[in-house]
Model the fold of this input.
Amino acid sequence: MSTSSSTHPFEDESAVYRVLANAEGQYSLWPDFAAVPAGWDTVHGPGTRAACVAHIDERWTAMAAAGGGAGTDTVPAGPAREKVRVS
Done:
């Protein structure tokens, strides 16, 4: 891993990442060097941080459009529509 001690592993633009998803439809950006936690599956990657974030954003936009917005301009509330970061 090529990070300095001050770089958080989820924010290192030069690191390799995966996109994980769980059975509830939640997504997580995950460093490739770390083991995938139980209950999560790789759905994209490994790849650059930018490519993985774009993958999540594309699906997040589709989920928001399909959900109707529920009075918000982002994503409907509820556990199946939340972005999460597993740490």
User: Anything to note?
Assistant: The longest strand covers residues 40-48. Helices lie at 49-67. Confidence is low (pLDDT under 50) at residues 68-82.
